[in-house]
Design a protein that fits this description.
single chain; about 350 residues; alpha+beta; hypothetical protein PF0899 fold; 2 domains; five-stranded mixed beta sheet; four-stranded mixed beta sheet; 18 strands; globular
Length: about 350
């Protein structure tokens, strides 16, 4: 068993991580064409191959490429809301996130309005912002899988690629958990005096609990449009004026793509909402029922903290007969409120 407790490493894997400053590339060695073992190291922002003498590799570089391609390919479709944040530039990257367990940030209050007078000698009200320290845990999301040494050698000797099905499944589970953390459909996670929340379980989110179900008698697409506009007004009242992400749970799909009005065939509820908000998308992990989310696209409301991209590491057990792999990532949502408790997250649910 390998573990790290109070800064002390126990076991070969933990020791190698501690010696490298928690650089996961030490657990990604490959066999070069010359038969030597190499790892990738970052030198001035450029990855370079470095020969190592204290690690024995079992996979060739092409094997790692095949595994990584399968893992990234499987993870991308699951990281929808996460990709939205990152695509909007709403992320904070931590160098060597494996070596840190908590991110500390501050929320800041505003100051009073400026004075208007005819005489500049008049003294305005003097004040200064106040600050409140908050902490955010940085857990690792991970899933394991294994290949036996015999499977690896059979693949190599037969010229057939490794079966990456299990690796893809592990990658999907990691990506799904990161997506659920952001959306709030996974359980909140607490550590070190801080808690990770998502959009739908953030305690300071704004709520509208009287959204009309599209299954209700008398519902029309205009009903939903007006209720989403009311959600926007809640955000405005909390001094958050957009732009916004607009998300719906999967159950809404059948109604979002219906014609908005018989007078305008081809104009759907989705396109009508997108005309107002720029988008109206369903997200797979928003749960069952009819949920709506409105989230302001600014870093003071929500951002992804990236301590480590989706990465695969490998180590040996059972005398080298078993190749153990772990897909892991540090992708943590950071939802924020201002000093006065205002936020730009509005959560709509049916009554």
């Amino acid at each position: 068993m390998d573990f790290i407790l109070n800064g002390q490493a126990t076991g070969n894997v933990a020791g190698r991580l501690m010696q490298s400053g928690f650089n996961p590339t030490v657990l990604r060695p490959w066999i070069g064409k010359d038969g030597n073992t190499y790892i990738a190291v970052n030198k001035d922002g450029v990855l370079q191959a470095q020969m190592v003498h204290n690690a024995t590799a079992t996979l060739r570089k092409d094997d790692w490429i095949q595994l990584d391609d399968a893992i990234v390919r499987a993870a991308k479709p699951r990281l929808q809301a996460v990709a939205d944040l990152r695509g909007a530039g709403l992320q904070y990257s931590i160098t060597n996130g494996m070596g840190k367990t908590v991110l500390e940030t501050e929320s800041q209050s505003d100051i009073s309005d400026a004075e208007i007078s005819m005489d500049g000698t008049r003294q305005s009200k003097g004040d200064r912002p106040e600050f409140d320290l908050t902490s955010l845990p940085l857990p690792i999301i991970h899933k394991d899988f294994q290949f036996s040494a015999r499977q690896v050698m059979a693949s190599r000797n037969g010229g057939s690629p490794l079966d990456t099905t299990t690796a893809e499944l592990a990658s999907r589970r990691v990506a799904e958990q990161a997506e659920k953390l952001l959306l709030g459909t996974a359980s909140s996670y607490a550590f070190g005096g801080g808690t990770i929340y998502g959009y739908t379980n953030f305690p300071d989110r704004l709520t509208k609990s009287d959204i009309t179900s599209p299954e209700a008698s008398g519902w029309t697409p205009a009903t939903t449009l007006n209720e989403v506009l009311a959600m926007r007004q809640l955000a405005h009242d909390a001094y958050h004026y957009g732009p916004y992400f607009l998300y719906f749970s999967p159950a809404w799909d059948a109604y979002l793509d219906r014609d908005y009005s018989s007078s305008y065939p081809g104009v759907t509820l989705r396109s009508r909402l997108a005309g107002v908000f720029g988008q109206a998308e369903t997200r797979d992990y928003l749960g069952t029922g009819y949920t709506i989310l409105l989230v302001q696209k600014t870093a003071d409301v929500a951002r992804m903290v990236v301590g480590m991209e989706v990465t695969t590491v490998q180590w040996e057990t059972m005398g080298g007969m078993m190749m153990n792999f772990k897909v892991m990532a540090i992708l943590v949502p950071q939802l924020r409120k201002d000093f006065n408790g205002n936020t730009g997250i509005v959560h709509g649910t049916t009554s």
